[in-house]
Amino acid sequence: MRNLKNKPDPNLTPLDSPPSVPLIPIARRKTRKLWVGRVAIGGDSPISVQSMTKTDTRDADTTLREINALEVAGCEIVRLAVPDHAAALSLKRLRPLTHIPLIADIHFDYRLALAALEAGVEGLRLNPGNIGARWKVEEVVKAAKERKVPIRIGVNAGSLEKDLLARDGHPTAEAMVESAARHISILEGLGFEQIKVSLKAFSIPLTVAACRLFSDRFDYPLHLGITEAGTAFPGSIRSAIGLGILLAEGIGDTLRVSLTCDPIEEVRAGYEILRSLGLRQRGPILTSCPSCGRAEIDLPALACEVERRLGNLHEPLHIAVMGCPVNGPGEARAADLGIAGGRGVGLLFCRGKILRKVPEAELVDALLEEVEKLRKGAEFHALD
Ligand code: SF4
């Protein structure tokens, strides 16, 4: 596996792993840094989590509710579809009502891009090769430059240029990167380099190959995603595999998990992927055993209740919920807070020390009390 090293490569940007879950630090590919409003992307910036609204952008009230819910869930950038002029006008209404950076997703019509910029969006997702005459591209680029708004070039295996498809007979990594290179050269030709790129396919091997090839050739920041990944459960697994391979190699600067469900789940999945690799530290990490015939407490119910009640915690606490004395004390000791189950009771641990024995029915409340004490009094490693 490339770039996964114990010793950070001096040419790459190392990140710290979470304090209590030992992981091999991942050295990230060095990319250029740009800003989508207040959110930095690329360089040594944390890998940001994006999502996209699923409401009709023209319905500003409903869309604002979804944007607010996404922000509460930790989403850092929200993209909105702008299919027509009414949607662009809606952006103008929405922009002052939320602080989160907004990206307008535009296809084909340069006037919509200009209207979205006029509305104050912080980013555009637009392929310059798809909006026609050069003067139209020039107008968009000029307006984006004036407002310091970056443009994401989004290459999708399902909508490659006809000549590239005909050349290879089917979507290939080379064709996807070639497509990105064409759009990039249009923007560079106009002196515009505030560029992000995404190369997405439903196929994981194709997405991975395209992103690897791109990051070997370019240092523009990469937006990762597995497109049309499916419904919440299979789509999250599919995305975790695809994005996990790339992120473990240090590739990727921002991501969106595309799921056919409430976009909040996209945000949750995005953070879970990043936290699993030690690339972000937002929220608790829960270690829980699967339970088995040795458990003498209802471990699954206990773990689910702990997960539910810690749902809104932002601090990077490591919590262990374990079923019996076989592996329980070891894992519970290694966590910030842990439960090791016994017969209808549990031992409560805090950072390696036994606090007390607690009856099963009171275990979750007792754990949550200790969480609050740690939150009030303890130092946490810097939240990213
Ligand atoms: Fe079974 Fe105990 Fe292991 Fe949990 S910790 S899976 S209860 S042996």
The largest sheet is: 8 strands, parallel, barrel
Mean pLDDT: 91
Q: CATH topology of the largest domain, what is it called?
A: TIM Barrel
Q: Which ligands appear in the coordinates? A: iron/sulfur cluster
String of helices and strands? EEEEEHEHEHEHEHHEHEHEHEHEHEEEH
Textual characterization of the structure:
The structure is a single chain. The chain has helices at residues 60-72, 85-94, 110-119, 134-146, 162-168, 173-189, 204-217, 232-248, 263-276, 299-309, 328-334, 363-377; strands at residues 13-14, 27-28, 34-36, 39-41, 48-52, 77-81, 102-105, 123-125, 151-156, 195-200, 222-224, 254-256, 285-288, 318-322, 337-341, 345-350, 353-359. It is an alpha/beta fold and 384 residues long. The chain folds into 2 domains: 10-276, Dihydropteroate synthase-like (TIM Barrel), CATH 3.20.20; 285-377, 2-Layer Sandwich (Sulfite Reductase Hemoprotein, domain 1), CATH 3.30.413. Helix 3 (110-119) links the parallel strand 7 (102-105) and strand 8 (123-125). The radius of gyration is 23 Å and the shape is elongated. Mean pLDDT is 91; it is low at 1-20. The structure holds iron/sulfur cluster. The site of iron/sulfur cluster has 12 residues, from loops.
